[in-house]
Design a protein that fits this description.
Its EC number is 1.14.14.25. Heme binds at residue 451. GO terms for molecular function: cholesterol 24-hydroxylase activity; heme binding; iron ion binding. The structure is a single chain. By secondary structure, the protein is of the alpha+beta class. It has one domain (68-80, 94-387, 412-502): Orthogonal Bundle (Cytochrome p450). The protein has helices spanning 2-40, 56-64, 69-80, 99-106, 115-118, 140-150, 156-160, 163-183, 189-206, 219-235, 246-275, 284-292, 300-334, 336-349, 358-363, 365-377, 409-412, 454-471, and strands at residues 83-88, 91-96, 123-124, 127-128, 186-188, 383-387, 392-394, 397-399, 404-408, 472-476, 484-487, 489-492, 497-502. The chain has a four-stranded mixed beta sheet, with helices on both faces. Strands 5-13-10 form a three-stranded antiparallel beta sheet. The chain has a two-stranded antiparallel ribbon with strand order 3-4. Helix 13 packs parallel to helix 18. The chain is globular. 40% of the residues are buried.
Length: 504
């Protein structure tokens, strides 16, 4: 009884002490926020919604309404100029839409990828996601070592050898569309091209046949869940602590685990083939294993590192190309004159051939323009960011070290300053004789950290589009949405619903 009495008398003091510590810590945090405001508030930008949370409430409201945050940033860039300040708690983000600054920063290796975004992509809700893979590695030496090992899987010679696979998988899509045409059913083009691009990356990168146009698979849903979860994890620091979100958080974790466990299985199967002396392709999976074998002793972290790159390539290798194809089909359906011009070129270059050659791709000039214009308006990867470790001056504005520089090709490509009538879909912007956009169009990023799979993605997209235009007429179903959905990558919100019929 005496012990209980003593404990009871001690509790108020412990509680008071805890509250005092919390108050002092909170006061210190508020003073730090105020210090950041004084340090960066000379940079133009919209008014903060909150002293503590900065512009976060604005972004969360847009997400709640299924909007696109980048449209709001575009609005601010037009209003405040090429350098704008945004505050998220104790993070200061500087949007940069100056071609000269974009060139200086992205073309250099001395500006590391930023901590704010890329460290949060290591895990998703405490489940390892992209880790230290090729996209997220911040240390330049670590990244360069990976990139050098991966390069052979994306050499021109190796990519030429993939034309057979691109043709074969695109033919499976044509067979599926033939069924849709004969049955007079509506085709969800986003879903279909997602299946094709995931089939392609699984086959050419990992040696696995999924045949998603004929078989069900948990992978497409898992990728979508991870990407959507990534958006909440990066933009809403409180998301995982709200009880109403716990079910969804667990779904994201399960999706991450599925991708990584699948990767572990495929890697172990390939390792066994290598150990047994079997011939294996010089594909991405072999290169991932080769990168880990540089270490004398394989540790648990080395195993996780292999899975980091597996997940990176599995997602990046299909998601971006699928969304580009879907947006391209959507815009061609909205512009019959451009569609007819693209068909005419395909008829002249491809004719009735079933097998499209590597040389044919180089002759599809107008189709290249169409695909580039699709990426201008709808870059599936919106942009990139860098940490600012030394003071810099951009457009006459002094930016102190410590901030994060945000570069958005989505925003830059929708600015009147860089493109006349920017919301108009006009492939002639990319005519060979037209002036080249100066460091404002970078859907695959720029410089040493630009996308390794750029050529792979464009070859695949061109083969699929050429076969589609060669074989089918398609019309967009009336009444559907042509809005954009932000799911980590940008997707057509309505799915691009089409009726298709065979061309005469």
């Amino acid at each position: 009884m005496a012990i209980l009495s003593a404990l009871w008398s001690w509790l108020p003091h412990a509680l008071l002490f805890t509250l005092c510590v919390f108050f002092v810590a909170f006061l210190g945090y508020c003073l730090y926020i105020k210090h950041l405001h004084l340090k960066y508030d000379h940079i133009p930008g919209p008014p903060r919604k909150s002293f503590l949370f900065g512009h976060s409430p604005i972004f969360l409201e847009i997400m709640k309404n299924d909007g696109v945050i980048h449209d709001k940033i575009h609005e601010w860039a037009e209003m405040y100029g090429p350098v704008i300040r945004m505050n998220l708690l104790h993070y200061v983000l500087i949007g940069v839409y100056s071609p000269e600054a974009t060139k200086e920063v992205l073309m250099s290796s001395k500006y590391p990828k930023d901590k704010f975004l890329y460290k949060r992509l290591f895990n998703l809700f405490d489940q390892r996601f992209l880790g230290n893979g090729l996209v997220t590695a911040r240390n330049h030496e670590q990244w360069y070592k990976q990139r050098r090992i991966m390069d052979p899987a994306f050499s021109s010679l190796y990519l030429r050898g993939l034309m057979g696979t691109f043709n074969e998988r695109a033919e499976k899509l044509m067979d599926k569309l033939s069924e849709e045409a004969e049955n007079n059913t509506v085709a969800n083009m986003l879903h279909l091209v997602n299946c094709v691009t995931m089939d392609v990356i699984a086959h050419v990168a990992f040696g696995v046949d999924l045949d998603l146009l004929r078989k069900s698979s948990p992978f497409p849903k898992a990728v979508e869940t991870c990407l959507k979860g990534m958006i909440y994890y990066v933009r809403d620091a409180t998301f995982q602590y709200k009880p109403q979100n716990w079910k969804y958080v667990n779904e994201v974790r399960e999706a991450c685990r599925l991708l990584r466990s699948t990767g572990a299985q495929w890697i172990n199967e390939r390792k066994t083939d290598i150990q047994n002396g079997e011939d294996v392709p010089k594909d991405i999976l072999t290169q991932i294993i080769k990168s880990a074998q540089q270490e004398e002793v394989m540790t648990k972290e080395d195993e996780e590192f292999m899975l980091d790159n597996f997940v990176t390539f599995f997602i990046a290798g299909q998601e971006t190309t699928a969304n580009q194809l879907a947006f391209c089909i959507m815009e061609l359906g909205r512009h019959p004159d451009i569609l007819e011009k693209a068909k005419k070129e395909v008829d002249e270059v491809i004719g009735m051939k079933r097998e499209i050659s590597y040389d044919d791709l180089g002759n599809l000039t107008y189709l290249s323009q169409v695909l580039k214009e699709s990426l201008r308006l709808y870059p599936t990867i919106v942009g990139t960011s860098r940490s600012l470790e030394k003071d810099i001056v951009i457009e006459g504005i002094h930016i102190p070290a410590g901030a994060t520089l945000m570069f958005s090709t989505y925003v830059a490509c929708r600015m009147e300053k860089f493109f006349k009538d920017p919301m108009k879909f006009d492939p002639d912007r990319f005519h060979p004789d037209a002036p080249k956009p100066y460091y404002c169009y970078y859907p695959f990023s720029l410089g040493p950290r630009s996308c390794l799979g750029k050529k792979f993605a464009q070859m695949e997209a061109k083969v699929v589009m050429a076969k589609l235009l060669q074989r089918f007429d398609f019309n967009l179903v009336p009444g559907q949405s042509f809005d954009v959905r932000d799911t980590g990558t940008l997707r057509p919100k309505g799915g691009v619903l089409c009726t298709v019929r065979h061309r005469n």
